[in-house]
UniProtKB/TrEMBL annotation:
Species, as recorded: Branchiostoma lanceolatum (Common lancelet)
Coiled-coil parts of chain: none
Function, in words: Translation factor that promotes translation elongation and termination, particularly upon ribosome stalling at specific amino acid sequence contexts. Binds between the exit (E) and peptidyl (P) site of the ribosome and promotes rescue of stalled ribosome: specifically required for efficient translation of polyproline-containing peptides as well as other motifs that stall the ribosome. Acts as ribosome quality control (RQC) cofactor by joining the RQC complex to facilitate peptidyl transfer during CAT tailing step.
SUPFAM superfamilies per UniProt: Nucleic acid-binding proteins, Translation proteins SH3-like domain
Domain Translation initiation factor 5A C-terminal: 86-155
Lipid bilayer topology: Peripheral membrane protein
Listed NCBIfam families: eIF_5A
Recorded name of the encoding gene: EIF5A
Protein name (record): Eukaryotic translation initiation factor 5A
Amino acid sequence: MCDESMEEFSGATGTGASATFPMDVSALRVKGFVMLKGRPCEITEMNKSASGKHGNAKVTIVGEDIFTGQRHEDVVPAEENLDVPNVVRTEYSLCDITSDGGVSLMDDKGDTRDDLKLPEGKLGEEIKVKFEGDGPDLMVMVAKAVGEEAILSYKISKE
């Protein structure tokens, strides 16, 4: 009976990981991640203003959305907590590109997935040209955060 109830409990909770976690503003660093305007961003700039007679120190945080590249900015008190996204990066071998821009990917265990598309713009075009050429296999890096997934970069496999 104990095993049965434990199985139900663990199955109902999923992985147990949260999409975000709180972090003190003073612990954030450039090149780290933070949620700005409800979007997962990589921090590109941080500036702290000195405290004055009208209040405590403030921190200006500028970040770039990791999925869209859009710039976001926020000013927060230095002692506040902000949400930080759990960002998971995974490398896949690029197996195929369909005519509509869909991609077929394979992980290091041999499992495949076909649920992502090439990124729009310059990165997507570069990947397509490299894949269609006679060059070596391509590896793509897929990032997942707050329920979104996208291909963010590529490299030529050295195998």
